[in-house]
Design brief:
Layout: H1 2-20, E1 36-40, H2 47-60, E2 64-70, H3 75-85, H4 89-94, E3 98-104, H5 105-108, E4 114-115, E5 118-119, E6 125-129, E7 135-141, H6 150-162
């Protein structure tokens, strides 16, 4: 009888340790390997100041700053997020050495194909930034890859992120 009680107590204490140890609340909280993802919200402050600060962080990490406009209802955006969470090797390699600054178009006020000085007609949309957080003029949207699979998305994004 004592062995059963002891085993029960050991099992309960192991479960308690597991429950009490810090756990990420969401897989998105885990930092991807080789690149960075941050999400900015309008209540964080002025967008241009925020982009400038994030671009400086990116450069300090040796990563290229890129603004991504997305939305939770956007199928390609969700496909990319799912591939990153699943640690899809094709996507992880394509995003290597990038610093993705996500902006939800619904939160930032997508008004007449524009969010502040960023113009577009579809999402997801990516703008490369310089070291000061200004647009470089290098832009891509999701149209070139067709079906929203990692096999289609990764080569297009890899080319965009890594071309000089």
């Amino acid at each position: 009888m004592n062995k059963k009680i002891m085993l029960l107590l050991v099992g309960i204490s192991l479960m308690a340790c597991n429950l009490l140890s810090p756990q990420p609340s969401d897989p998105e909280d885990l930092a991807p390997i080789g690149f960075t993802i941050v999400r900015l919200h309008p209540d964080d402050g002025d967008l241009q100041v925020l982009l400038s600060n994030e671009a400086k962080k990116a450069i300090a990490l040796g990563q290229m700053p890129v603004v991504e406009f997305d939305a939770p209802w956007c199928p390609p955006c969700r496909a990319i997020d799912a591939a990153i969470k699943a640690k899809n090797e094709l996507i992880l390699n394509a995003y290597h050495e990038t610093y993705i600054i996500k902006l939800d178009v619904d939160q930032w006020g997508w008004d007449k194909e524009k969010v502040q000085d960023f113009y577009f007609d579809c999402i997801p949309l990516y703008f490369k930034l310089d070291s000061h957080g200004a647009q470089t003029g290098d832009v891509i949207n999701g149209r070139p890859w067709g079906e929203d699979t990692p096999e289609n998305i990764a080569p297009v994004m890899d080319d965009f992120f890594h071309r000089p």
